[in-house]
Amino acid sequence: MKIRIHFSSFLKSLLLLITLGTLTQRAEAQQATLVDNIVAKVGGHIVLRSELEFQHANAVGQGYKSPNLRCEILRSLVQNKLLLARAEVDSVIVEENSINGELEGRLNQFIAQIGSQEKLEAYYNKPMSEIRSDLRRSLKEQMTVQKMEREIAGKMKVTPKEVQQYFNRIPKDSLPYFSTEVEVGQIVKIAQIGTSQKQAAREQLEGIRKRILAGEDFAALARQFSQDPGSGAAGGELGFFKKRELVPEYEAAALKLQPGETSPVIESMFGYHIIQLIERRGEEFNTRHILIKPATAQVDMQQTAHLLDSIRTRIMSDSITFAKAAKELSDDMATKGNGGMITLPNSPTTYIPVDKVDPSIFFVIDTMQVGSVSGPLPYRTEDGKEAMRILYLKSKAVPHQANMKDDYQKIAAAALADKRNKAISEWFEKNKDTVFVDIAPDFKTCSLDE
């Protein structure tokens, strides 16, 4: 079968989103085993009917309209599976530390959204260890697809001439109309934990360790004391992991243990741990742990506010630009590489419609002048850390129809996305015969060749 995939940037972004809903869909899809639930086979990967229908409902909910929507979604799903299959052949690997970092952030976000770990487990009717495992597989697949796309088209750029040519191809009556938009930046400083807080956390964990060595049950104490939202309720058990899939400090301590043995207190980016090795199976190992996080004291927040005040003073006196300060001083990894500018998920530009601005930001910038920087504001990071930030209102655009003068950045991003999509389609044309693709009979009418 000839496969030439064409798909919209909207659908491409939509199908890569990992949300509570997509996690639910994946959990359900993994339970489907009947042949008639498979709508496509791509190498060793399959597309399930439940997966297709969920993405269709999600697209409709997002307002996407097309007479052949299911076929477009199928093409995009087949494309992702092709990328995964070729990633295996070409040994394209996503670093485990990157997956683990994203996993922890997503889990904390989900727990915050639904209210508690217990509510999350009740929602899925499964323990946190299984939810973690499901989400990890989804994230690994998503990040592998993204890395393959970067391998194919990641280094592409567009010239001003190409941007103008792309804009000229848009019919005048189809030019988008942009509502009021803003560009907002942030510099985040995470409150530093004082020595006394660290010592208190370590001493608490040392006391728990003594109780374990005296004969108390590790799992029972983990359920009582562990502050890890992902494993505490499961007696601290993480499940089987391979080498380099957990943070280095944890793995190094775990691999020194014999089954049933408990480690000394160790420190990682998450806090302080004691670890018990449950079982080693070839290159995999299963552990349980108890995590205690040092408490954040008020004095730390005050010191953080003072530090941000000094950064703000330097920016306002023009001794450093906001972008340079964000790159060098911000603790927010998601924005510091972008000069501190906040973007919407999967958005190629820094412009944000005001109706999509986070309320905690909107009510601050609503009273600010363009070019000004706010005072320090309390902030909680996605992984639950206490922090403070300053906000920068870079620009504010009035409602208007798209034009090259005001919207060059957005038009250039769209032109680049179009160029990359064409490159990926060309790549498929050259590589389509390297992976076996089979489509279910009731979807044969979907024209995957167009």
TrEMBL record:
The keyword Signal applies. Keywords: Isomerase, Rotamase, Signal. InterPro entries: OMP_Chaperone_SurA, PPIase_dom_sf, PPIase_PpiC, PPIase_PpiC_CS, Trigger_fact/SurA_dom_sf. It comes from the Bacteria. Residues 1-29 form the signal peptide. GO terms for molecular function: peptidyl-prolyl cis-trans isomerase activity. Residues 179-279, 282-392 form the PpiC domain. The keyword Signal applies. PANTHER family: CHAPERONE SURA (PTHR47637:SF1). This is Peptidylprolyl isomerase.
